[in-house]
TrEMBL record:
Stated name of the protein: EXLDI protein
InterPro entries reported in the protein's UniProt record: EXLDI
Protein origin, superkingdom: Bacteria
Highest classification ranks of the organism: Bacteria, Bacillati, Actinomycetota, Actinomycetes, Propionibacteriales
Length: 177
């Protein structure tokens, strides 16, 4: 295996030392970091962004990938709201982030009365100064599919039409102007 010499400034010495402690093998740590850097930079040059979304119930956990937003939209009904974002990943897959949130279920007034509202009143309530709002937990999911057809049943028809239109467009169009 060939040897490579890396010159480290005095200011960065502590960083390299900490990397060695964490990785155990500084060469492996440097290779891993460079691999991630090259992947992200190549993606950025191709027009892709680093996307971080939350998935799961409540605040959930974070998931990250390289992609470009194709379309976003949502729909609501008496039970809540669904927000959708559809991305194309760097590998050509379609990534759907769906965030389903329930509307406010009830409002507890200062005298202990519980008011249940539907529709727009569930968002506005009575606006008295002493009240407690109760909001049901939502859930966000991430679906990865290979084809547009697999995406069709997961999103509203109008959003699917937008995704279908944008799917074959380049992530970035360079203009010679």
């Amino acid at each position: 295996m060939p040897n490579k010499t890396i010159y480290v400034s005095d200011d960065d010495l502590a960083l390299y030392k900490r990397a060695q402690e964490l990785a155990g093998n500084l060469s492996q740590a440097i290779s891993t970091a460079l691999r991630r850097y090259v992947e992200m930079e190549e993606g950025r040059l191709e027009g892709f962004d680093e996307i971080t979304v939350r998935v799961g119930r409540g605040t959930g956990r974070k998931q990250r990938f390289s992609g470009v937003l194709l379309a976003e939209g949502g729909r609501s009904n008496k039970n809540g709201y669904e927000a959708f974002k559809v991305y194309r990943s760097r590998t050509g897959k379609f990534v759907l982030h769906a965030d389903r949130r329930n509307q406010f279920n009830s409002i507890q007034t200062a005298d202990g009365e519980e008011l249940n509202y539907t529709g727009w009143r569930s968002w506005i309530g009575s606006f008295s100064s002493n009240q407690t709002w109760s909001m049901a937990q939502g859930e966000a999911t991430l679906h990865v599919v290979d084809t547009l057809e697999e995406l069709r049943d997961l999103i509203p028809e109008e959003l699917y039409a937008l995704v279908e239109e944008a799917a074959d467009q380049p992530a970035v169009e360079d203009l010679d102007i």
